[in-house]
Amino acid sequence: MINVASYSPYTRLREHLAADPRVWLVTGAAGFIGSHLVQELLTLGQVVVGLDDFSTGHQRNLDDIFRARPEAEHRFRLIEGDIRDAATCRDACAGVDFVLHQAALASVPRSIHDPITTHAVNVEGFLNVLLAARDAGVRRVVYASSSAVYGDIADSPNVEDRVGRVLSPYAASKASDELFAIAFQRAYGLETVGLRYFNVFGPRQDPSGAYAAVIPRWIGALLADEPCAVYGDGQASRDFISVANAVQANLLAAASAPAPATGEVYNIAGGRETSLNELFRMIRLGLAGYQPHVATSRPTYTAPRAGDIRRSVANITKARRLLGYEPSQSVEQGLGLAIEWYVTGDVAGTPVGSVTGTSSFSTR
Q1: Peptide bond into 157 cis (omega under 30)
Q2: CA-based Rg of the chain, rounded to a whole angstrom?
Q3: Which of 184, 212, 245, 340 has the greatest number of CB atoms lying within 10 Å of its CB?
């Protein structure tokens, strides 16, 4: 799943985990990032508890894992439940060594439309996970934060110790999570590590729904010969990161030395700025190998969205230094894998596009 040949810290970690399996809880296990974490952990011979309420996750993501690795199913236990329920979190954390907390409502527009539910899931739910982990004697909680916490700060690239004023309830919820995590480490000794994801993408990212991320939404639209909407002039930029890199970061964060790595937050990104216009051209190029007429497609431009950040790119020096993190897949490589999956993979039971061909992106 992950090319780690050139990245010795992660190579060593994978060998260590394979030789000494642990018990892991992945919240949001049926989601996009969560299912990739489950897959990698099972590949390494670990025992995994998955927690998901399937509000945004999909059973098909888990089915995809066990089609390829049926022998690992006996090392996986699924709990269908909501992190807003404290008893469910206690059940999930029982006997667990490490928690990888991915469960969230991860959408700026959704949070603006419904800030109460965003707060309940992202903050109150996270607090339930922290309490359950503390009481169960969990070694460490690694949790998903977000680049949204940088808000309106003008600095570029973003560094962890300088943030601005948050621009959405979603960003506020993730900033709150960081404060709670640090407080739990200082007050109770529960080791925590926060990962400020930038724009994670890859296979299994849901292309449907009003809050779909830009890459799967555009791939689905182009395959369906529908227009791709660009909010603003297309010069807004993001730091896009393949899901393989997010998986690596989670496992390194869980197994890194306690000091000074814990009680901290880290940028998890590629350290590369890509404008939306450039991203559209890259996706169009990749899809043209499957549907040649896509090569002439043009985006449509509309008004910027409330709460969106104009520029977003990460400084990943801290994660490199303290976690041993090193991106293993470029944006182009990650897009090649994602496009191949959306065209030929099983998305909601059927391929996004019933076409054949070869992606223009190198995927190896």
Answers
A1: yes
A2: 19
A3: 245
DSSP β-ladder status, 274-275 and 237-238 = antiparallel
Confidence of residue 126 (pLDDT cuts 50, 70, 90): very high
What the block records as the tokens of 205 is 């990212």
- For residue 120, the SS3 value is helix
At 347 the pLDDT is: 52
Q: Whose structure tokens read 């621009």?
A: 167
| pLDDT 10s digits, 219-278 | 999 999 999 999 999 999 999 999 999 999 999 999 887 778 999 999 999 999 999 999
Burial class (CB in 10 A: 0-12, 13-18, 19+), 302: exposed
Catalytic residue among 170, 197, 266, 290: 170
CA–CA separation, 261 and 9 (whole Å): 14
Query: Which contacts (CB < 8 Å, 24+ apart) does range 148-157 have?
Result: 148/108, 148/174, 148/309, 149/174, 149/175, 149/178, 149/196, 150/309, 150/312, 151/309, 152/309, 156/273, 156/311, 156/313, 157/239, 157/271, 157/273, 157/313, 157/314, 157/315
Active site residue 170: yes
- The answer to whether 151 and 166 are in contact (CB under 8 A) is yes
Say how many C-beta atoms besides its own lie within 10 A of residue 11's C-beta: 12
CB-based contact 246:320 (threshold 8 Å) = no
The reported pLDDT for the residue numbered 188 is 98
CATH superfamily, domain at 8-198+242-271+313-328: NAD(P)-binding Rossmann-like Domain (3.40.50.720)
Buried b / exposed e over 148-187, threshold 16 CB at 10 Å, is bbbbeeeebbbbbeebeebbbbbbbbbbbbbebbbebbee
Query: How far apart (Å, rounded) are the C-alpha atoms in residues 130 and 136?
Result: 10
All CATH 3.90.25.10 domain ranges in the chain, comma separated: 201-238+274-310+330-364
CB neighbourhood size of 293 (10 A): 10
What pLDDT score does 23 carry? 98
3-state helix, strand, coil in the chain (%, to 5): 45, 15, 40
Give pLDDT, residue 51.
98
Q: List all residues 6 or more positions away from 297 whose beta carbon is below 8 Å from its beta carbon.
A: 222, 228, 284
